[in-house]
Amino acid sequence: MKLTTFLVLICALLNPAAADAGSAKVADVGKAVAIALPIVAGGISIFKSDWDGLADNILVTGATGATTFGLNHLIKERRPDGSDDHSFPSDQAGIAFAPAFFLWHRYGWEYGVPAIAAASFVGFARVDARKHHWYDVMTSAAIGFTYDQIVTRRYHDPGLYTQAYASSEGAFVSLDYQF
Fold it and tell me: Which fold has domain 2-177?
């Protein structure tokens, strides 16, 4: 399942029609991926019944988004397309990289590699659309990575399952441990 998802993502990213340089389509897809990454990361945590992981994801993504948004409005740097002075750092890239780093740190490289590839596509789309410089995107990724390292703890499936059963003939307790 993980391999299939990864291969579909890579094929979508390498599709020449989706990666047409300078197209508005790339920017739109990048925006959609940036929105989807935190939702997918939260969905993975919910699927695993990992409520601490869900809280970590919300905290890492929220802190990254707030930091990049605040810095974006404090630091006046002209966008490459000249549209305004909110280039540094990229809040959209930060919102994409934060859950990607969370997935890698919390659940391992199997989840992290596709997520970081998708976040990298978001960064590419922002630079390609001339909304950010490459260092705007890299700074946002660094902010997301820093919050991830501070907040996220590695996920460990407890592996211990208990079950209790009572009947008129007696009570039973079962302990199962998965290695």
Answer: Vanadium-containing Chloroperoxidase; domain 1 (1.20.144)
